[in-house]
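Minutes, methods subgroup
Present: GH (chair), OT, SY

1. OT presented the first of two proteins processed in the latest run. Sequence and structure tokens recorded below as shown on screen.
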Amino acid sequence: MRYEVTGKHIDVGEALQTHVRTELGSVMEKYSQRPTDATVIFSKSGHEYVCEATVHLSSGLNAAAKAHATEIYGAFDDACEKMDKQLRRYKRRLKDHHKARSEPVELLGASSYILAAEQDDVEAEAETLQPIIVAEMETKIPSLSVGEAVMQMELAGAPVLVFRNEGKDGVNVVYRRDDGNIGWIDPRN
């Protein structure tokens, strides 16, 4: 497994990198035999350290966890514990989906745009009726079943996930509703 341990305006020493590799490696051994890579980013928010950990699994799914603590090792340990809990919760489903899927998850390329929230020159937008694009990026849309999409959204801690439905070959959306349930949007052709 390939590890990328970085810090935003923080010097990440060799001892912390070794701790991350050891602890995250032991968690991944329990739940996933073939993780591809892990990214751990440390940053500082006020007096607390923030740790964001993302692990890409060979099945195409991503597991993500984020934690805050007053010490940098504590922040990582809390994030690692959250990831352990997520993977433990989905262990059976991860293994079942992994066996049923003979090929890795297919990813389709798509454009992703960030639109300006507020604008100084409202008249300019009114004339063209086009929103101002702040950033344009390339993103990947996975081909998943609805169950895999819900699991991927839960593992990533995301409020919404856009995916290509394997069963119907259409673009679908799953999202977390305000009442705690999961919503699924399946447009008809």
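2. SY then presented the second protein from the same run.
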Amino acid sequence: MDYVNLPTIAALSDCVSIINMGDCKAVRVIHHNAQALISLHGAHLLSFQPTGQADLIWMSEDAIFDNKAAIRGGVPVCWPWFGRIAAPAHGFARTSEWTLAQHRENDRGVIIELTLQDSEPSRAIWPHKFFARLLIEIADTITLTLEVENTDSNPWTFSGALHTYLNVGDITQTTVTGMGPTYQDSLQQGKVCTGNEELMLTDTIDRVYTAPVSPIVLFDPVLDRHIEVRNQGDNSAVLWNPWQQGAKAMADMHDTGYQTMLCIESTLHAASLEQGKQLVPGEKHQLVTHLSIK
């Protein structure tokens, strides 16, 4: 994604500026250790490129930046639910306008903090009070921390995911380890299955791995790198690639887009909203994903 030379709307510091991505405002980070781009629409990480490396994050070349639709690729924030257990699918956080609360930088990197809280439109969808913040720590590695707090007077339950799309050279040559042996196969109505310790894709995958280890490691021989994914605050790791048939069915993904991406998601999975994680008033929970190249 070529965003470095796009016109600056506002320069916030030597490393941080605001630019337009279509109709979306985005935070651009240019630091000597890495570059990154985050849309305020959805608090959506669009790019993370350590110096000297190809982007770790995959973005669809047909992604829609209309400040309304969910953005295809990057790291969508799925909250206060994950999946189609309620409407809209994957919750409303990924299509809400977040606020840039603060940014800090030093010789190692840049920290961006985005926030979202309940509003009349959000309570019409999900009738609870909350405060959410996404902390994005950008250096030669990246850490995304979604912290949610119950600011209501009653308990509520939730699920969610940091729905990371990883950029790979060729999905048919990519292998993954550390996802664990047991998964629920969404292509077989959630059937519980057991798989191999190493995964290499030959077709569509949509799996909820229920006992992942840390790190999950993606080996990409084409780009000559191992990507380590370390998750916290999760109960599962979702792996997804729509393959050719799925890509063709999406207006915002090129027919060949599936060839260079794989989602490895830090997920709090639940079969329904009622079965999600409960937070009592004043309680917080953090969902984390950390990406690094080894």
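Chair's summary of item 2: The chain has two helices and 24 strands.
Next meeting: continue with the remaining queue.
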